Amino acid sequence: MKRTIAGALAVLLLLGGCAVQLAYDNVDRLARWFVGDYIALSETQRFRFDQGVVDVWDWHRDAHLARYADFLEALRTSLADGTDVAEIDAIVNTVIGWAEEIEARSLPTAIELLSSLSDAQVTELRRRLAADNGELAEEEMGESIEDSQRRWQREMTSRMSRFTGRLTSAQEDYLAAQSVRYLPERALWAEYRGRWQADLLRLLDDRADAERFEAAFRVLAARREDYYGSELTQIWEHNRALSSEVTVWLLNDLTATQRRRMDERLSDLVLELRELASKERSRGGAPADPEGPACAVQSC
What we know:
The protein has one domain (4-299). Helices cover 74% and strands 0% of the residues. It contains 13 helices and no strands. It has helices at 4-13, 20-24, 27-36, 43-63, 65-78, 85-115, 119-141, 145-164, 169-179, 186-204, 210-222, 230-252, 256-278. Helix 4 runs antiparallel to helix 6 and helix 5 (65-78) packs antiparallel against helix 13 (256-278). The relative contact order is 0.16.
């Protein structure tokens, strides 16, 4: 739940969409839909949640968007003459740092929402988290390691082609050859989530003491890595190193047409981000009044 708002904003951090402005102007709805996968909010909860999202949203526009634009502008120059693993890792760490800032800013809203849950909502949250983890684990448990590796290849192809256009046959062959190094991680990821969520659910049993709950949840949120386990940590490190190495090779192998396409894409993103940073927040209206008509999150 700590990642509720950050999860919606991650659409922009990953810069993977084709309509950044449209996505950004609908962050409140994206955040609400995300929460709606787990909790059907009451009118009052929805109103307070929307207010919290707007607060983070306005801060993010002021504090982050210009930084993203500056960063991407610099990338246009630095990637033009090739790259290396150190540079790619630095880029990833920068994005992770942005996400951590957003999470820290959104934490009060997550705490307020969690502490306001009814017993029925906690029961439903427990059920939906378990189902979600089961689906995540099944994605890998129901497929061979070769299937997992082919899925990794498809995901890498999709990420790169968003910026460069279609990959060449040689680039596709390279990805296929490297995919055999990928180690499945989703089942272990589901197990980690289950361990962390179990402690969250136990903590929710004591949510009536708001001050105690907030202090304990902040500690729990900050200690996520303690729940990873050595096997998942090692696999993550392996797969992250693989992704960095592959990304470097692909970027250094781009054709002239692909380089031009990537530069144009980065340039377009820079312009969109600067426009978003400079304009007033455009919304379909203020957060709904709690006295207004009820709306189940799932249908909003």
